[in-house]
Write a structure and sequence with these properties.
Blueprint lengths: L14 E7 L6 H4 L9 H17 L6 E12 L8 E12 L2 E10 L2 E14 H9 L3
Antiparallel strand pairs: 1-3, 2-5, 3-4, 4-5
């Protein structure tokens, strides 16, 4: 089942939207990526990935999941505590088991970040089993 092609299940154009209101725990200070009280880049990345996961959730075949394999992220504007950001993911390309998403993160009319997130369709049980083996 791990060899299943992603384009059999996930058509390009598939998308999802995820929203976050920035709290103290989302700041660069809190996540260790800086010393300013604004939305930290690691949280922007997590939000972008959450949108890609949400895009595939309703169509995910039993026993399968996707895992992140590559990310390109441009974090352009700061978002203060209390600000709300929205990540909109769109499946741009399917190549075998690989899914390439384009994600835009906005704060109202402003583009806060843009990302390209690549995920791979895998057999959940086999993946966890391999990850759990001693090195």
């Amino acid at each position: 089942m791990e060899r299943q092609q992603a384009d059999d299940t996930f058509p390009p154009g598939l998308g999802a939207r995820v929203e976050l209101t920035v709290t103290d725990s989302d700041t660069a200070q809190a996540v260790g990526s800086g010393d300013v009280p604004v939305l930290g880049t690691p949280r922007v990345l997590a939000l972008a990935e959450a949108a890609t996961v949400a895009a595939t959730a309703a169509r995910m075949p039993t026993g399968l999941t996707t895992v992140g394999v590559r990310v390109e992220l441009d974090h352009r504007l700061p978002t203060p505590i209390g600000g709300t950001v929205v990540a909109q993911a769109r499946l741009a390309k399917v190549d075998g088991r690989r899914l390439l998403f384009e994600v835009t993160v906005t704060d109202g009319a402003e583009t806060v970040a843009e990302a390209r997130v690549e995920r791979a369709l895998v057999d959940r049980h086999r993946f966890v089993e391999r990850a759990s083996r001693p090195a």
